[in-house]
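Minutes, project check-in

Agenda point 3 was the complex the collaborators sent over. CS summarized: two entities, 258 residues total, and the question is how they sit relative to each other. Sequences were read into the notes so everyone works from the same version.
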Amino acid sequence: MYLTWRLNTMTADHLSATFAALADPTRRAILARLASGDASVTELAEPFEMSLPAVSKHLKVLERAGLIARSRDAQWRPCQLEARPLKDAADWIEHYRRFWSESFDRLDQYLEDLKEKESKNERKQRSKK
Amino acid sequence: MYLTWRLNTMTADHLSATFAALADPTRRAILARLASGDASVTELAEPFEMSLPAVSKHLKVLERAGLIARSRDAQWRPCQLEARPLKDAADWIEHYRRFWSESFDRLDQYLEDLKEKESKNERKQRSKK
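CS then shared the predicted structure for the full assembly.
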């Protein structure tokens, strides 16, 4: 019982860390860059016109969330994308898919109804002429 | 050009607001509760052993991110789940699916190799006996 609670809490904290790490456009851009291959901190800093310490701060948040890993290679220390936590985030959001699908279905229905109404009106006006 | 940039920035901010709102276990639990039906603030506060102001604060974050809507019914003002922003979050994460699938494929391969090695060792030991 306690273990289940602990595990749930740990997973919850893990999810919170993942979502918090993703809640920043620069950090999402860094992940997008790493999706095309490993990169050093200097390479990652380039497109952002940011100081190295500022980028390092973002990298630390991503590293704590387990979204990137840094190689032990002292010379270069490239960063690597670790997508595993994104799976848990995707799984969590997935539970809500039916809600956004439903609202799109309602929108589709509304647009269909609107189209039908318009064509009825057109037919009416044509028959009046 | 400017419009594209503005739209990108707006979408980016929107995504950040969504992820930031999801980065809290209580807010995720509130969304889970609302997935089973609309609820008043008092009803939402109950399972969390939280003060109404504390819950209201969480609701404001969710409302700003567009994840919940509150009815104008002055008597009851129930909260409703609005799943639309979750779709954008899911779409963003979806781009990384191949990375976590790949790492699971690698893990599968590793376990397969391990099993094969073990059964080879067993056969060797049996033939020695």
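Noted in discussion: The mean pLDDT of chain A is 84.
Follow-up: revisit at the next meeting once the mutant set is ready.
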